[in-house]
Write a sequence for this structure.
């Protein structure tokens, strides 16, 4: 199969959380309640998770029906009232995509930065980081993009980070380093997936001038 994009990876994580997140939250809440005897805290956290989940369902429905104003209202409410839940991070990611689609890159950057700063889930942080770095790069903020990709452990998404590093090197006129980064990205593509044609083109194009 083709190498999944960061957008597809985010959707996979969002789908997993929607199917399993509530049980994870409630399990953690139950553990805290048993350990500390804070039944009131468990009830509060459970109620927060349920309310955030309900609003997030409404957010997704509004996006599907292209009701952007309504979707933004739901997202803003989740982020404001349920900041500490994963639904707030996913809401910020949804807002960033909406802003990119409407060509409002500055607002998209703000929402992506918020999601990056507030997620404690490593895989989500990695995906948000690469999305933010790509946006910064597209906005001409090359140094900020470079700093971000250089200071993040890409994990299973390391190929994406290395490819972007190559793009940044190329933008700065360092073709040798760009080619090294592109080749490393190709090596890091997960087994069983196909290297993207665009990455192969970048490698072949630079190899011709070496």
């Amino acid at each position: 199969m083709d190498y999944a994009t960061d957008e597809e990876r985010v959707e996979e994580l969002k789908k997993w959380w929607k199917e399993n997140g509530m049980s994870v939250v409630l399990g953690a809440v139950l553990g805290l309640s048993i350990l500390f005897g804070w039944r009131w805290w468990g009830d509060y956290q459970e109620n927060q998770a349920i309310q955030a989940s309900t609003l997030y369902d409404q957010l997704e429905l509004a996006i599907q029906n292209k009701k952007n104003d309504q979707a933004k209202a739901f997202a803003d409410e989740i982020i404001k009232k349920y900041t500490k839940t994963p639904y707030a991070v996913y809401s910020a990611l949804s807002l960033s995509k909406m802003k990119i689609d409407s060509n409002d890159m500055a607002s998209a950057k703000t929402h992506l930065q918020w999601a990056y700063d507030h997620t404690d889930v490593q895989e989500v942080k990695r995906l948000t980081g690469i999305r933010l770095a790509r946006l910064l790069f597209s906005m001409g903020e090359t140094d900020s993009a470079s700093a971000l990709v250089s200071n993040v452990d890409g994990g299973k998404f390391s190929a994406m980070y290395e490819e972007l590093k190559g793009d940044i090197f190329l933008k700065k006129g360092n073709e040798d380093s760009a080619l090294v980064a592109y080749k490393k990205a190709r090596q890091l593509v997960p087994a069983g997936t196909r290297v993207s044609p665009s990455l192969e083109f970048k490698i072949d194009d630079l190899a011709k001038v070496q």
